[in-house]
Amino acid sequence: MKLTAIKLMLLPAFILSFFAFVCGDSKTDQTEVKKQDNTTQQQTQQQNTQTQNTQQKTDSMTTKTDSTDSKDKKDSKESNTVILKTSMGDIEIELNEKDAPQHVANFKKLVKSGFYEGTTFHRVIPGFMIQGGDPNSKDSDRSNDGQGGPGYTIPAEIKAGHVKGSIAGARLGDAVNPKKESSGSQFYIVTGEASHLDGQYTVYGKVTKGMDVALKIENVKRDERDNPIEKVVIQKVSFK
To answer: How far from each other are the two terminal CA atoms of the chain, in whole angstroms?
Structure first.
């Protein structure tokens, strides 16, 4: 009986100890879960931050690439409309790619390379035409003006006729050039009557604006070789 009484006295203490043990483990488990949750949240935040940084770098690179591509596209843009910026004003020309594709392609190539910049209109005849595009005209030696070029000729593409404002390829005479091939760079702009040249020279464009400038150029003072005494310079040729 005494032993049983002792066991009964110890039973509450045992139950309290067990309850405390269980509760303590539960609290520990909750703490561990909370720590794990915090750790997971921190890792998730770090991953999100890394993802955002990566996305920002990617967006930045994409924007830079798009900007570069846009600039390249802008710099490489070419059309059939070109503007001759001269020391006396601007002349706008529409190129005729349909009738003279090789001449137009060559002219565009020279425009893109800056070939014409600094050349002059080295031969002007009132009521007829103004001629330019010779690289020799860039220097101070006037005696060789009209004799230069890029070192090649362009096969004849004779279709369109000569009207006021027409732009055509200059060339050597039939005696040395029976195929009527055009100079690789020299051209002339018709400012008056030139129908007698039809069927002899390749016309590959026409002035659409600035014909008044061309008429001013043809009337400048010139020497015995029809070369303007004061240079009329083609400062720049660009696509519109």
So the answer is: 117
Q: List, for residues 12-30, the tens digit of each pLDDT value.
A: 555 445 444 444 444 444 5
- Listing DSSP states for 119-134 in one string gives -BEEEEETTTEEEE--
Tokens of 87: 């020391």
Q: Which of 140, 144, 141, 76 lies closest to 111 in space, CA to CA? A: 76
What residues have CB less than 8 Å from 79, skipping those under 6 apart? 239, 240
Mean pLDDT check: name the lowest of 19-28, 74-83, 209-218, 229-238: 19-28
| CA 101-74-100 angle, 5° bins | 5
Nearest CA-CA partner of 115 in 132, 94, 130: 132
User: pLDDT per residue over 60-111, tens digit each?
Assistant: 554 554 544 444 444 447 899 999 999 999 999 999 999 999 999 999 999 9
Q: Closest by alpha carbon to 193, among 239, 97, 128?
A: 128
**What does the alpha-carbon distance between residue 173 and residue 237 come to, in Å, rounded to a whole number?**
28
The rounded distance, in Å, linking the Cα atoms of 134 and 143 is: 12
Q: Cβ(168)–Cβ(67) under 8 Å?
A: no
Which H or E element spans position 83?
Answer: strand 81-86
Backbone angles phi, psi at 212, to 5 degrees: -65, -35
Alpha-carbon gap, residue 151 to 182, rounded angstroms: 12
